[in-house]
Amino acid sequence: MQQRRIILSVTNDLVTDQRVHRSCMALCEAGYDVTLVGRRLHDSIAVQRPYRTKRIRLLFNKKALFYAEYNIRLFLLLVFRKADAFYANDTDTLLANWLASRLRRKPLFFDAHEMFPEVPELVGRPRVKKIWSTLEDRLFPRLKGRGCAAVTVCQSIADIYRDRYGLQMQVVRNVPMSYPEADDAGRALLAGVPDGRRILLYQGAVNIGRGIEWVMDAMRYLPECEFVVAGVGDEYEKMKERARELDNVLMLGRVEPRMLHSLSRCADLGISLLENRGLNYYYSLPNRIADFVQAGVPVLATDFPEIRRVVEGYSIGTLLPAAAFDPKKGTSVAPDPQQLAQAIRQTLARWDALPADEKQQRFRRAAADLSFENDKKTLLQAVGTIFEK
After folding, report:
1. Per-residue H/E/C for 53-88
2. Are residue 79 and residue 156 in the same domain, yes or no?
3. Which of 38, 209, 320, 333 could be disulfide-bonded to 14 (CB atoms 3.0-4.6 Å)?
């Protein structure tokens, strides 16, 4: 039997999107012929994958013109390339995939990594948010038909879309594969850090609402610690400039996944302090939480429902109340830097006092659950339903 060909699409440049890479690998292992489509930026590095990739170079790379151009060019690609099904990742690729699937009468699979109209970048932009909400209002109810299926990242979001559109979405969490055997490769990234400093690690997109600047402010009161930021994003240059004022903040930029796995094991505390910028953050379970779990690193995180379910459920860190957010001003009330420093110091002290075997037991239980080896079964089952007659 000939392999079924699936074309997946995203709006990023493929390099750091580990969720989509895991999905592609799961599909390949299940016998599908996979092509992943994204975009090429001026600084995009080469990608080598066991499946085909295609990156589109665009004239526009920001805001409305970017989304319009990308969806037009993606639609044309999908219309003319051989495929047995289309796989849209997030609402920003859904229109092109939907139109191509209807025109060519091909199955459509939708993977919602987040509640797109609720992303922090749209807070305070009601007109733009309305456009994306209207798009979902028009298309999501149509994902219930034969030849369509959808998944999302957590039960909270699945419940919202079920109540809003009657759409049944299975849950495929944003969790990593089990980490490879430990090595010291990531320690080379910390070569300039003075010996004896405790490593506080943030990994992921350096975007608005991630609490990175709050931790930077607290670092003045934590001379015994080094705050390491691994990742890039819209706020990266701003955070990098801010870091120059401090001697215990290290901005690493983009880190290759294998090195990031190793780096995570070097951390003493993982940081995930989200602002309450809409439902997308409120109901999120950041993949860095699961990465820290796989690396055996305790976390300091915001007390949001899905995060609480993991942190309290497995007793693998400390939760802090969400800062008050003013949607009109688009800003949160930043925590007092000295109080945040104290919370970090107390978390480290509590974890240091815990017996080693107790730590291992907690993380062993959490890692066994928060592993893509579990969730890929759900993904493959859901994808299989779109081919049912």
Report:
1. EEEEECCCCCHHHHHHHHHHHHHHHHHHCCCCEEEE
2. yes
3. 38
Q: How far apart are CA 40 and CA 58, in angstroms?
A: 7
203 three-state secondary structure: strand
Q: Which pLDDT score is estimated for 389? A: 73
Query: Exposed/middle/buried for 217, CB within 10 Å: 0-12, 13-18, 19+?
Result: middle
Query: What pLDDT is recorded for position 150?
Result: 98
> Would you state the pLDDT for residue 121?
77
d(CA 224, CA 345): 10
Say how far apart CA 291 and CA 297 lie, in whole Å: 9
What is the pLDDT, as a whole number, of residue 1?
A: 55
Which tokens in the block code for residue 338?
Answer: 């000295």
Distance CA 97, CA 86 (A): 6
Tell me, what CATH number does 149's domain have? 3.40.50.2000
Same domain for 153 and 282?
Answer: no
Q: What is the pLDDT of residue 329?
A: 76
Tokens at residue 121, please? 């970048």
Tell me, what's the pLDDT at 325? 85
Question: How many other CB atoms are there within 10 angstroms of residue 56's CB atom?
Answer: 17
Structural domain span for residue 221: 185-369
Q: Are 83 and 6 in contact (CB under 8 A)?
A: yes
Together in a domain, 84 and 73 = yes
Q: At what angle do helices 305-314 and 356-369 cross, to 10 degrees?
A: 140
Residue length of the chain = 389
3-state SS, residue 23: helix
Closest alpha carbon to 236 in 270, 206, 210, 193: 206
Residue 182: the pLDDT is: 65
3-state secondary structure of 217: helix
Does residue 34 sit in the same domain as residue 54? yes
In angstroms, the Cα distances linking 135 to 34, 138, 169 are 27, 5, 18
Domain count, the chain: 2
Whole-model pTM: value is 0.86
Contact 255, 291 (CB under 8 A): no
